Amino acid sequence: MLNRIKKYFAISLLGGAMLACSTGETDEPLTQVPFTQVHLNDVFWAPKIEVNRTVSIPSAFQKSEETGRMDNFALAGHIIEGEHQGDFPFDDTDVYKILEGASYTLAVQYNAELDNYLDSLIYLIGIAQEDDGYLYTSITNQCERLSGWYGKGRWDRLNSHELYNCGHLYEAAVAHYQATGKRSLLDIALKNADLVNEEFGPEPGKKKVPSGHPIIEMALVKLYHVTNDEKYLNLARFFIDETGKATDGHELSEYSQDHQPIVEQDEAAGHAVRLGYLYSGVTDVAAIQHNKALMDASKRVWKNVVSKKLYITGGIGQRAQGEGFGENYELPNMTSYCETCASISNVYWNYRLFLNEKDAKYFDVLERTLYNGLISGVSLSGDLFFYDNPLESVHNHDRAPWFGCACCPGNVTRFMASVPGYAYSVSNKYIYVNLFAQGIAEIPFMNDTIEISQQTRYPWEGNIKMTLNQRTLSEAVGLKIRIPGWVQNEAVPSDLYHFVDDYPSAYSFSINGEMVDVEVEKGYALIEYQWQPDDVLEINFPMPVKKIVAHNQISNNHNKLAYQRGPVVYCFEDKDNDNAWLFDHFVPANTEVSAQYESALLGGVTTLSMAGRMVKTINGEQVTKPVQLKAIPYYTWNNRGTANMLLWMPENAEACVEKPSGSPALSAQCEGSTGWVSGFNDGFTPSSSADYDKSYFYWWLKEGTEEWVQYSFEQEQTLSSSSVYWLDMTHYDGDFRAPEWWNLEYKNADGEWLPVKTTDDYSLEYDKYNVVNFEPVNTQSLRLNVKLGEGVSGGIHEWKVD
């Protein structure tokens, strides 16, 4: 089995063949060393990969069965009767993604039970496929309930997600074929891809539209590498070239990444996951076809993200609206979206750019995302997930075992299994060492196999011991070892964030105890050496705690610091800090910070300790008192229950927000005409109606209608005043404005809703509280009614009652 697996994974996950030896390094892209050749036994990744294998994947398969995803294939194959299940036509992809992850684990650790399970699942997928290759269960099952997504039938609407489903099918098929050598799923995928090629293309009579939700572009590239059939590469290029053309009369849309031709784009906009997937495919195609215009576009948009739209955690996609990008430097914390799938797409994109450009700056972004904003998306237990990953919380965010739109859990399962594949890559002349993790890699290189062993406790310690064993190669082996940007005092490869202090770049390299000077090119140290079996290369990356300042145009981070040690970004959670509010704490910039490893905490983590102050106003005078604070790695938060959490800690009292008290709204139950609601009683006053940093509420998908929100109190309250701070937001996913009118009603003892008595105007001004005083009422419920403006929605930052 192992030899067969190695044979089929001679093609990497990205599909590239190994380059031949020559006298110098070529301009061709690097090749990924397959993850099956990299065996980790470290303290960080190995346990997480095992939890993914034993918990996350089985749990995700079980949820897919419980929610009818498997039954939808059986229904399409006419072996059961019933109704199509689920609320989304792209539920098929969840099965494909988990199957892909399971294939990866099967390749590393064979399990006959899992192998048989996948065979059975593939049988279901196969019988669901129509005779001509079409595979999309909601249409095959004629689910009228979901026709709003797909319209009249096949290929009718750009956002039907049909091609998105195809893309994930292809990726799973390639993984399963490479892991097992079986063609069962690959043949299903190729039959479908051939149908897509017949339906779409530049030739007369074919549909001329982009994919709608990209992923098929990079999936087709994988099919091209497996089959060497140019039509799949050409089809990927076709979908890329159709972006922004509206050739077939469809509406251009930022949301679908279809607002401009690729070669004209220079700013990240629209749906963040779509962007990451699209530009991964763009980079793949550009690299193979040596297309400079496409590659330059990918790099331009990357530069915009890294210099203006990247979170310090590596997350992308600032807004919940449209699950996508906001304006430049708009990087809110509590409302940051940072979808887990977007972080995964960000890793895919950066890795492809790195392979093409051989520049460590892309891997620096990848590492930041990997250790922070991506793995925060799954609990340490492996069975709870974040869809979005905020940088602040006031007990208003929690992981869940599954989602109605379950894209993130399945995506995590397939990604975690593939992490070792990012550790090494090769050119025709050099082995690139990209990630640092204890384990052994067997790397095909220059007609030889080079065994590289790492001993390290990275990311908790920066010491790495590396040995090489070359079996037959008689000449020197060239290593290029990434010197992380944080080691060289660069927070990110732009001016978006920078370290407070000018830490020296005190890294060192030694061979058998003797220090060696290294030449550094594009962030990689070059070492060429005739390695002997007992030779030991030692690398030392000092890991002081580094304090980070955000760009001045990120207004909500003024007078705040973030903390990083090694590649790990830290946050403060109330569980470690006397269950404190935390937003009323600050740590002066010159405070000393100590680091300590705690093996019994959160699976074993290094924590930070520091002295801080807490702000409180007493009798009209603001005072501070000393507190001791502990910070934990950001990715570990919310593993001990719902929490207050913040990542950017104030450095002075000016940036603090004192804990609100007194108002009955703070503890009220919130309801609305759209169901359960939240975001307007957290006690944070915005700086303006366009300040999106803290939680807010909006009537999603409602325009021009009469709506309401209400407070219900545990006990009867005497109320005489209400204040509303209106939301003002413009977005492609909806405009949110002050309503045409609003009023207040209270519920009396008989359960009747009555208007409050007031002579005040129900004002509609922005950037302030709109206050209404009324005759006192005794009630357990107060309702705010609105009439939304025609063609626009509405929202509320804060609603106070007294």
Please explain how this structure is put together:
- The chain has 16 helices and 33 strands.
- With 802 residues, it is of the alpha+beta class.
- Helices cover 27% and strands 24% of the residues.
- It starts with a helix and ends with a strand.
SSE diagram, text form:
Elements: H1 2-8, E1 31-32, E2 38-40, H2 45-66, H3 69-76, H4 92-108, H5 112-128, H6 137-140, H7 147-150, H8 162-180, H9 184-199, H10 216-227, H11 230-242, H12 272-289, H13 292-309, H14 340-357, H15 360-374, E3 392-394, H16 407-416, E4 424-426, E5 430-433, E6 439-445, E7 448-456, E8 463-470, E9 477-482, E10 497-499, E11 508-511, E12 514-515, E13 519-521, E14 524-529, E15 537-540, E16 545-550, E17 560-565, E18 568-573, E19 585-586, E20 593-598, E21 605-618, E22 621-633, E23 644-646, E24 649-650, E25 669-672, E26 675-676, E27 697-698, E28 706-726, E29 736-737, E30 741-747, E31 753-755, E32 770-787, E33 793-801
Parallel strand pairs: 5-9, 29-33
Antiparallel strand pairs: 1-4, 2-6, 3-23, 4-5, 6-7, 7-8, 8-15, 9-14, 10-16, 11-12, 11-15, 13-14, 16-17, 17-18, 17-24, 18-22, 18-23, 19-21, 20-21, 21-22, 25-26, 25-28, 27-33, 28-32, 28-33, 30-31, 30-32
Helix pairs in contact: 1-8, 2-4, 2-16, 3-5, 4-8, 4-16, 8-9, 8-10, 10-11, 10-12, 11-12, 12-13, 12-14, 14-15
Q: In percent terms, what proportion of residues is strand?
A: 15-25%
Low-confidence stretches: 1-13, 15-23
Helical segment count: 16
Radius of gyration: 28 Å
Helix content: 25-40%
Query: Could you give the count of β-strands?
Result: 33
Major sheet summary line: 11 strands, antiparallel
| Structural class designation | alpha+beta
Shape: globular
Q: Separation of termini?
A: 71 Å
Average of pLDDT: 93
